[in-house]
Design goal:
There is one protein chain. The protein is mostly helical. It has one domain.
Amino acid sequence: METKVHDTDKQAQAAKLLDELRAVINCNSVENASNTPDFLLASYLGACLDAYAAAVSARDRWFGIDPWNRTKQGAAPPLDAARTPVKR
């Protein structure tokens, strides 16, 4: 049950971040340069942040480091098979 609350909190935080990104993009008229709606640019930036976080996690696993001791806390989920880096 606690996991569902945690997931709901994370979803709410993600939605809030996207809304705040959209607002900043709109207030600064950043969307005008590409003629792309602010909500699409915000979604793209959110996806970039997610991709970066996944890359950092994969890098840490590759080098066998755990900079925030996440494995002891159980907060670092393993990557799925498609994302698992190939060992050299």
